[in-house]
Amino acid sequence: MKNSILFLALIFSISSISAQYEYAVSNEHPYGLPNPEAPKQIKDFEPMIGLCNCKSTVRKQDGSWAEPIDMTWRFKYIMNGMAIQDETLKSDGIHSGSIRQFNADSSKWYVYYYTVRSIPKSLTAWEGNKKGDKIILTKEQAAPNGMEGYYRLTFYDMSNSGYKWIGEWVDKAGTIVYPTWKISCTRKD
Length: 189
Hints:
Elements: H1 2-20, E1 50-58, E2 69-78, E3 83-90, E4 96-103, E5 108-115, E6 125-131, E7 134-140, E8 149-159, E9 162-171, E10 177-187
Antiparallel strand pairs: 1-2, 1-10, 2-3, 3-4, 4-5, 5-6, 6-7, 7-8, 8-9, 9-10
């Protein structure tokens, strides 16, 4: 009888843990699921959830575009479906990732980027929202010549078959837009 009670308690405990994390990455859902208790904006990144093969192209010092490099970009739900994490694996070894959380109080996405290229003592946030069919995130950043402005990241052409991304420096007035990085992705799975 005592063993039966312990066995039932163990089964109940395992079931409770599974239910507590039902939106986390699992064998059944390798990229997790959006938690219905999360802000509805958790689905803004839904077209990116999964694995894509991408081409990443950066601007060289002379202003020309470098040859594209191969990149894998994976997005998944984390924190039991309350946030999103992405990871890039690039053929040049410069891997990176982000944690993406939507704050209902400010009605903004906050994105914390990290890379193997440089490891900061603390992570700063990119901020933004979905506007129409694009997701736009910005962070203040001076140009190399010291001109005040910001860096803008835009996801666009999002569909079940893939998406595109561009990084651009923009002056404070919004009259100068200088693209420095672009990525084109095709869904792998």
